[in-house]
Automatic annotation (TrEMBL):
Enzyme class per UniProt: transferase
Reactions catalysed, as given in the entry: phosphoethanolamine + CTP + H(+) = CDP-ethanolamine + diphosphate
Keyword hit for Nucleotidyltransferase: yes
GO molecular function, one term: ethanolamine-phosphate cytidylyltransferase activity
Record key words, sorted: Lipid biosynthesis, Lipid metabolism, Membrane, Nucleotidyltransferase, Phospholipid biosynthesis, Phospholipid metabolism, Transferase, Transmembrane, Transmembrane helix
Ranges for region Disordered: 397-417
NCBIfam families: cyt_tran_rel (TIGR00125)
The protein's name in its UniProt record: Ethanolamine-phosphate cytidylyltransferase
Record carries keyword Hydrolase: no
Listed EC numbers: 2.7.7.14
Family of the protein in this entry: Belongs to the cytidylyltransferase family.
GO terms of biological process kind: phosphatidylethanolamine biosynthetic process
Source organism per UniProt: Clitoria ternatea (Butterfly pea)
Domain Cytidyltransferase-like: 54-183, 253-384
Length: 417
C-alpha cells in the first residue's frame, strides 16, 4: 500500500514534466517552422521576376482615355515603361501634334501609374527597337489598345511584337479621343463666329442635351461627336488614391476649371503639392465655367475633367463641383491650411476687390498664396494652336481615316471575306 502510494504521489510531477517537454517541443517546432517559412517567402519574393510592360503613344492633348489605358497597362505588370513618340514621327504618320514633345513628356511623367518614360520613341515597333526594349529595358510585354494602330501604308504598327508572342491587348476607353477633342474645339470656334445668330444654341447647351450641332447659311455640320461620357463609381475609385489626409496633415487647396488638362496645369499642381502633405483640387461645374469664361466653355465636361485631374500623381483628392467662392465653412470642413492660385490663369479674379474676390475669406485669414506658374500655358493657348492649324488637323483626321481603311481592307483580303 505504502509503495503504491509513493508511486501515486510521483505521477502528477511526471505528467507535468512530460507535458512541459511536449509543449516546449511544439513551441520550438512552430518557431522553427515560422522562421523557415519566413525565409522561404522572402527568398520567393526575392526570386520572383519583376514584370516590366511597355506602352507607347503620341499622348497628344492627353485626356482621361490615355490615363485609363496606362492604368490598364500597369495592371498587367509590376512596372510600366512608356514611350512617347517624337514630334517628327507623329508628323510623318498622323500630321502635326498639337502639343510638343516636352509638354507631352510632362503629362506622361505626371500620370500616377507610370514608372519610367522613354522620350522620342518610334511610332512603329520595329525589330531593332523591339530588341532594344527586350535587351536594354528588360521589357516582358508590349501593350496596346484594341483599336488599330496603322502606319501610312496600312500595315499594323505592332506586327513584330505580335509575331514574337510578346504582345498584350487592353480595352480602349470609349467616348473620347484626341480627334474628338480637336473637333469639339473647331466646333467651339465655328460657333463663336456665328454666335450673332440667335437661332444657334451654345456649345455648352448642345453638349448638355447630347445634340449634334447643325449650322445654316451654307456652313456644314461638324463631324465631331458631342460628349456622352457617363462616369461610374467604379471608374472614379479606380482613378482615386483612396486615402484621406492624416490627422496633422497640411492640406493645400487649389481650384479651377482644369479644362483640356495640359502641362501648365500639371506644373502648377506639382508646385502646390510641394507646399503641403495633401493636395485637394476643386473642380468647378460646367455651369460655373460657362458663366465665367463664356458659353463655349468648357470643352471637356466636369466628369471628364475630374478623371484627368485624379490621374495626376500630385493630386490626392478632388472636389467634383467645387463652389466658385472659397467659404469659411469649406475651409473648416476640409481642414484647409493653405489656398493657392497660379499667376498664369484664364482670369485674374484673385486680384479683384474684396467683395467680388472668390478668395476673400482665405485672404482675410492669411492663408492665401499666389504661386509663380512654371509654364505660360492656358486652355486658351491650346485652342489657339488648333485654330491656327485647323486645316492641318483636318487633313490629319482624313489621313488617319485613309490609313485605317487600308488596314481593314488588308485584313479583309487575308480572312477571305
Amino acid at each position: 500500500m505504502g509503495g503504491n502510494g509513493a508511486v501515486t504521489e510521483e505521477k502528477p510531477g511526471t505528467v507535468r514534466w512530460v507535458l512541459t517537454c511536449m509543449v516546449g517541443g511544439v513551441m520550438v517546432g512552430v518557431s522553427l517552422l515560422g522562421a523557415y517559412s519566413g525565409i522561404f517567402w522572402k527568398r520567393r519574393r526575392r526570386n520572383k521576376k519583376t514584370i516590366r510592360v511597355y506602352m507607347d503613344g503620341c499622348f497628344d492633348m492627353m485626356h482621361y482615355g490615355h490615363c485609363n489605358a496606362l492604368r490598364q497597362a500597369r495592371a498587367l505588370g509590376d512596372e510600366l515603361i512608356v514611350g512617347v513618340v517624337s514630334d517628327a514621327e507623329i508628323t510623318v504618320n498622323k500630321g502635326p501634334p498639337v502639343t510638343p514633345l516636352h509638354e507631352r513628356m510632362i503629362m506622361v511623367n505626371a500620370v500616377k501609374w507610370v514608372d519610367e518614360v522613354i522620350p522620342e520613341a518610334p511610332y512603329a515597333i520595329t525589330e531593332e527597337f523591339m530588341k532594344k526594349l527586350f535587351d536594354e529595358y528588360k521589357i516582358d510585354f508590349i501593350i496596346h489598345g484594341d483599336d488599330p494602330c496603322v502606319l501610312p501604308d496600312g500595315t499594323d504598327a505592332y506586327a513584330h511584337a505580335k509575331k514574337a508572342g510578346r504582345y498584350k491587348q487592353i480595352k480602349r476607353t470609349e467616348g473620347v479621343s484626341s480627334t474628338d477633342i480637336v473637333g469639339r474645339m473647331l466646333l467651339c470656334v465655328r460657333e463663336r463666329s456665328i454666335s450673332e445668330n440667335p437661332n444657334h444654341s451654345s456649345l455648352q447647351r448642345q453638349f448638355s442635351n447630347g445634340h449634334s450641332p447643325k449650322f445654316e447659311a451654307g456652313v456644314p455640320a461638324s463631324g465631331t461627336r458631342v460628349s456622352h461620357f457617363l462616369p461610374t463609381s467604379r471608374r472614379i475609385v479606380q482613378f482615386s488614391n483612396g486615402r484621406g489626409p492624416g490627422p496633422d496633415a497640411r492640406v493645400v487647396y487649389i481650384d479651377g476649371a482644369f479644362d483640356l488638362f495640359h502641362a501648365g496645369h500639371v506644373e502648377i499642381l506639382r508646385v502646390a503639392r510641394d507646399l503641403g502633405d495633401f493636395l485637394l483640387v476643386g473642380l468647378h461645374t460646367d455651369q460655373t465655367v460657362s458663366e465665367n469664361r463664356g458659353s463655349h466653355r468648357p470643352i471637356m465636361n466636369l466628369h471628364e475633367r475630374s478623371l484627368s485631374v485624379l490621374a495626376c500623381r500630385y493630386v490626392d483628392e478632388v472636389i467634383i463641383g467645387a463652389p466658385w467662392k472659397v467659404s469659411k465653412d469649406m475651409i473648416t470642413t476640409f481642414d484647409i491650411s493653405l489656398v493657392v492660385h497660379g499667376t498664369i490663369a484664364e482670369n485674374h479674379d484673385f486680384l479683384k476687390e474684396e467683395e467680388s474676390n472668390p478668395y476673400a475669406v482665405p485672404i482675410s485669414l492669411g492663408i492665401f498664396q499666389v504661386l509663380e506658374s512654371p509654364l505660360d500655358i492656358t486652355t486658351t493657348t491650346i485652342i489657339r494652336r488648333i485654330v491656327a492649324n485647323h486645316e492641318a488637323y483636318q487633313k490629319r483626321n482624313e489621313k488617319k481615316g485613309e490609313s485605317e481603311k487600308r488596314y481593314y481592307e488588308s485584313k479583309s483580303h487575308v480572312s477571305g471575306d
